From TrEMBL:
Signal peptide: none annotated. Residues 16-374 form the FAD dependent oxidoreductase domain. One of its GO terms (molecular function) is sarcosine oxidase activity. It comes from Triticum urartu. This is FAD dependent oxidoreductase domain-containing protein. Belongs to the MSOX/MTOX family. Keywords: FAD, Flavoprotein, Oxidoreductase. The lineage of its organism: Eukaryota, Viridiplantae, Streptophyta, Embryophyta, Tracheophyta. SUPFAM superfamilies: FAD-linked reductases, C-terminal domain, FAD/NAD(P)-binding domain.
Length: 409
């Protein structure tokens, strides 16, 4: 029976790979698996492209400037795969831009990020009209000219879902997975949904974002310290006369300002006349019962003070941000991803991709490729060839570590 017909039945359906969760990671994993010729099913508990997880909205930064040297090889692999996917789709989701990393010279994470491919130190007096940023003496200001940019998040998720379907994947939304069990006799797994449907997969990939601890806890009895945080995306009005200056089209960068508060931004792009400038942090939350506002006033006040001090005269802070959008980070204690076999009774039949700690979007295509290869081949050859070391992302990585609360990775 063809996979599409099988998925239409209310009875059991057979797939080579079942992916649970259709955010950026699951959508990329489904695309990678289907591209390998695997009969692939992607299950999502809400409507496709919903706003309730971590992959919605219109801007995510892609940058090489990483304090941990383990990430730039993954960024480079992802960048190649973003390019391949755009070429296949025939449209773009990545708008190139420079990236500016700045902060006090005493900030070790900043120095490490610059050292790991974060660009060259420049005098900001010669950049972006010379007057946008006012940074104190002794600050490091480093710009990477190439390879950075802004990813249109929801459009990118939609692109990978469309490409997955083009390669033969079946995509089903409003399917909440409530059970994953080993088939009797050990041949693969049975995946069940809250409305009573049942699917059989030789392998299963779990990419459920902020719901990871809940689902993995209930299906495997494993306690993972992956803590959802409630984040607010803040858009601010640009002062009249400066609108063009701060656009991606004018070459304005994505930027990350290290220290306290850690503030980051993408250039004016998706909402003309507005610029996204965010505080990098937020309070713990339950993904099923968010209050949708926590972190709001506090984060907005901190960002407003930062803007007044470091970008004076360019952005309106009176009255606060004009748009606020809710989102979630899924933090691990050391802010490293979890990409591993679930193990236990599932052995290598279930692969987990989780804990992307507020910095995973840019890596989506690389993570999807890794998850698909782990599921299909038992090893991630493409990543190994690209110099990505998966030993940093094992499930047991965070034993004994305290929880993290920001993506100062
Ligand atoms: C405000 C904000 C700014 C960010 N900025 C950046 C950035 O600049 N650069 C960057 O690289 N990253 C950034 N990130 C991080 C990045 O967006 C996330 O790491 C990434 O989106 C995580 O994707 P995911 O697929 O793991 O999770 P999600 O997108 O949450 O996807 C998980 C999916 O699983 C579904 N699901 C859950 N439970 C079940 C179930 N039982 N059955 C079926 N489906 C289920 C959910 O509904 C959801 O659709 C940012 C995140 C936020 C919130």
């Amino acid at each position: 029976m063809a996979a599409a017909d099988a998925a239409g039945d209310l009875g059991r359906a057979d797939f080579d790979v079942i992916v649970v969760g259709a955010g950026i990671m699951g959508s990329c994993a489904a695309h990678a698996a289907a591209s390998r010729g695997a009969r692939t099913l992607l299950l999502e508990r809400f409507d496709l492209l919903h706003d309730l997880g971590s992959s919605h909205g219109h801007s995510r930064t892609i940058r090489d400037a990483y304090p941990k040297a383990r990430y730039p090889p993954m960024v480079r692999l992802a960048r190649r795969l973003w390019g391949d996917a755009q070429a296949d789709a025939g449209y773009r989701v990545l708008t190139p831009s420079p990236h500016l990393a700045m902060g006090p010279r005493s900030n070790a994470a900043l120095l490490a990020a610059v050292g790991n491919g974060g660009g060259a130190e420049v005098d900001l007096a010669g950049r972006w009209g010379g007057g946008v940023f006012r940074v104190p003496d002794g600050w490091v200001t480093a710009v990477s000219e190439l390879g950075g940019g802004v990813l249109d998040a929801t459009k990118a998720v939609a692109m990978f879902q469309a490409l997955a379907v083009k390669k033969g994947a079946v995509v089903r939304d409003n399917k909440e997975v409530v059970g994953i069990v080993k088939e009797e006799g050990g041949a693969g797994v049975r995946v069940t949904t809250s409305d009573g449907e049942e699917f059989h997969g030789a392998k299963c990939i779990v990419t459920v974002g902020a719901w990871t601890s809940k689902l993995v806890g209930s299906v495997a009895g494993l306690e993972l310290p992956i803590q959802p945080l409630h984040m607010l995306t803040l858009y601010w009005k640009i002062r009249p006369g400066h609108e063009h200056e701060l656009t991606a089209a004018a070459g304005f960068p994505t930027f990350s300002s290290y220290g306290d508060p850690h503030v980051y931004s993408t250039p004016s792009l998706e909402l003309p006349g507005l610029i996204k400038i965010n505080y990098d942090g937020g309070p713990p939350c339950d993904p099923n019962s968010r209050d949708w506002v926590s972190g709001g006033g506090d984060a907005a006040d901190r960002v407003a003070r930062w803007i007044e001090e470091f970008m004076p005269g360019h952005v309106v802070t009176d009255g606060g941000p004009v748009v606020r959008q809710s989102c979630m980070y899924s933090m691990t204690p050391d802010k490293d991803f979890v990409i591993d076999f679930l193990g236990g009774e599932f052995g290598q039949d279930v692969v987990l991709g989780a804990g992307f700690s507020g910095h995973g979007f840019k890596m989506g295509p690389a993570v999807g490729m890794i998850l698909a290869e782990l599921a299909i081949d038992g090893e991630a050859r493409t990543a190994a060839e690209a110099g990505v070391e998966l030993r940093h992302f094992k499930i047991n990585q965070f034993k004994g570590n305290p929880m993290g609360n920001s993506k100062d990775d």
